[in-house]
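@channel sequence for tomorrow's demo:
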Amino acid sequence: MKAIKVSEIANIVEGKLYGDGDRIVSSVVIDSRKVQKDSMFAAFPGEKVDGHDYIGKAFESGASCCIGNRVPDGETRPMIIVEDVQKALKKLATWYRNTLTIPVIGITGSVGKTTTKEMVSSVLDTRFKVLKTEANLNNELGVPLTIFRIEPEHDVAVIEMGISHFQEMTRLAQMAQPDIGIFTVIGYAHLENLGSREGILWAKTEMVKYMQPQGVMIVNGDDDLLYAYPAERDKITYGTDLRCKVRATDIEMTEEYTSCTITNGERTLPVRIHAYGNHIIYAALAAVSVGFQFGLSDDEIRRGLLAYETVGRRASVIQTGKLTLIDDCYNANPGSVKSALDSMDHFNGRHVAILGDMFELGKEENALHEEVGAYAVKHGADLVLTVGGLSEHTAEGARKAGGRAEHFNTKEELMDRLDAILHDGDIVLVKASHSMEFEKISEAIKKIN
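structure tokens (generated this afternoon):
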């Protein structure tokens, strides 16, 4: 963050300043353990932990000032007092964004935001100094913290933007004001709050209003709603359909890599990524589209894609010595599960899908789980194993489609049976919403002799 005086921050956030206003702030943190010299520590009140209790520690660690709702008893060092700390950080982030001249890329969608963010950053990093969202800090607290991390040496910022309610994207986009907006897919995530895919489209595209006047939308053209969206900005479509401007053909997947040929008019670019899955193709297409916009050469784009590394438990392919495990239990919704099932079809062997509950799907949750079970069978799953109350409907959908399915009440019950159920050479997909903690199942599979 560019250096700024404490008194200036107080004016920007319309807070009351106590103490020395001439001190300099060069970073903003919400964790007192991450305070460095000249940090501003933001103290959030909480039900279990109150950040105000750590203000003294923050100053001892080198903080220039702290911002919070109150001045702790006896504290004389610089404090900015505001009614709402989160709103104050948003004001400061908006102000700071307006001081920047570098391009900002905003990424949203129901599926694939983090993978796309990493892929885009990897491609741009071949020529530019890139600032990207850490982990998946993509909400109303994560976005301002990302903006504050933009330093004078950065050439471009890549910001992931996640929402679950209407108007959230408005608040995020008012801060980020993207020059390029990437829309990955309009799926079934957060239906509980957004009602329908059309509602999700409406909520995600709130970003467009706050993009820069000459901004560009880069959208998944294989998604029916995104393709049909009447853009108020220049719109570039990517996908596998002939109608897409940036298109992938000759797709090949192995456990070690995904490759394809990407075309854009007369430009043809064979690429390879050391990662697996259909979602990798779409992330690569978005990244290549950005590369084209930034004038990168074919060699730079290829090197960027080759440098990409899989993040967390997102479609990691692991050879256990007995079978092939596709560990994809970071999160799940109907669209991402179907994509994972499609990707599994590229492997030869008995296909076993271990599926768990998908949350925040609203009133259609039972039907959507049943639909996923039927999809699994129709797209090559030889055996469907499920855990969780909602996933009973997944198993039922698989049976109705003529497939084999077995439901378990708990993960432990399933794990006790894994050795007997799984065979040598099986291809095993593990996928569920993150809170289902299916990583425990993946770890148990790795230990089977």
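heads up for whoever presents: The first helix runs from residue 6 to 13.
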